[in-house]
Structure formats: structure tokens, C-alpha cells
Fold:
Amino acid sequence: MMKQLLIILILGFVSVSAFAQQDAQYTQYMFNGLVLNPAYAGSREATSITAIYRNQWVKMPGAPKTLSASVHTAVGEKNGVGLMLESDQIGAHSRFSLYGSYAYRLLLGEGKLSLGVQAGILNYSSDWSKVNNIKDADDPNFVGQDSKLLPNFGIGAYYYLERFYVGASIPHLLNGALDDLEKTSVYDRHYFLTSGAVFDISPAVKLKPSILIKSVPSAAPISADLNLSFLIQDALWVGGSYRFGDAVALLMEYQFVNGLRLGYSYDFNISNLNSYNRGSHEIMVGWDLNPQSPEKILSPRFF
Structure:
């Protein structure tokens, strides 16, 4: 366990700073790994359904609003499949994506190594009628409505034990121009690295540190989210997160014995944006169905 904690601490000292957000941002990423990594498919050993709604920077005009839904399941001992859709609205721009995932899992030491791929489409559209005070009203880049349909695919790796995981992924390998004229707007490649572990504090309390490191090399330096959560009576997760240079967050999740999971988080900005919004809300609903062994439904899933 000390080796696992050391890995997380080393990741935490990676240089961190502001992050240019193109992919949707989630505070509760640790409860829905498929939104970041296709190799997560099937790792919960059940048919797992998760939906997250995020209302970011409340009261700020044009602030992001995101809805994602995913389902994934194990197929036999070595395979996992998943499906994820995501809808994101930021001001005059909207983004809809649909991806299918496949993961191949193999035993490695005391854990499992999962290698995943995903493929799908991204539809990016803009309604310029929602934008006021355009300097050049005749600029063809800012007239009427336009949309762009882009195919894409991604890869990931995920190694996990009962109480430890580490994963790396590139969900979208292809950079694509979002405007056909000047090609000044580009959907950039994103890189994600995640890790977490669980430790016993007492018979009734467990501790789970986790980290998400993210980077868009062509557009922004590295950033990171650090999280520390406590599991109480194998049912209630309560914790907090720190997003470097951006926000602090409080979050909780309750795991029912029938596999149902409910989560909520609230972000408070610590950047210059804190004067212009009332924080960010995020609601998560999940359900693990038909676990492969009955005891899975009686014990919590840590990841």
C-alpha cells in the first residue's frame, strides 16, 4: 500500500497550472472512469450505468452545461464493452459526441491490465445569432449557424487491483478544424493520467486519495485535480477536491445495497472568476446491475 500511495504523491508533484477546457470537466471523475478512459469498460464486473449533469459557473452568461451518460459491462473474463454520449453547451457553441468502447483485460501480477480503444463522432455547432457585438458583422465565420461533424477515436490503459488503480488515456487522437474557412479553431488532443488507492483508517472508515492530471500540449500546460475522500460504513463517500489555480470542491456519494449510487459535488472558484459566478453544481446517478458474483452487491466498489 505504501508503494501505491507513493505513486499518487509523485503524480501530485507534477507541474500544474491553468488548463484550457475543451473536453467537458467533471469533479466526480473518480466515480465514472469511462468518461476519461475507454479501458475502464467492464472493470466494475457488472452492467454499470452512469449519468452526470454539470452546471458550471452558475449565473455566468454562457457558462458550460454538460450532460453525459454511459453504460459498460464485462463480456466474459477478458472483454469489456461500453457506450458513452455527451452533450455540452457553452454560450453559442454546442457539442454532442457518441463513442463506443472496447477493452481487453488480462491478469498482470495481483491485478488486471485493461487496454481499451474507442471510436465515434463529434458534432460541433455554433449559433452566431446568440452572440452580441460582433465587430465585423459581415465576417463569414460569424454569420448564421454552422456545424461540423468529426470522426475520432481514442486509446487508453487501466491497471487496477481491489484497492488501487492507475490509468492513462488519449480519448481523442485526431486534431480537427472546427471552422472550414480560416481553420483558426481546432479541437486539440487531450491527455489524461489518473490514479487512486484505498486505505483502512478504522473498521468503519476508509481513506481514498486520487489524482487526475490533464494536459493539452498544443494549447495549455499541465493541470491537476487532487481528491481526498472518506468511505464511512462502506456506504457513504465524503470528501474534497482541489483543482490547481481554479477551484476547491466538496463531494459526496452514497452507495445503496442494490447497486444504486447517488452523488453530488459543489465547486467554489478560487480564480478571478469567483466574482462572476456562484460556483458549479454536479449531480451523478449510477446503477450497477447483475454483478457476476452476489457478494459484489453487498460490498462497495472503490473505483
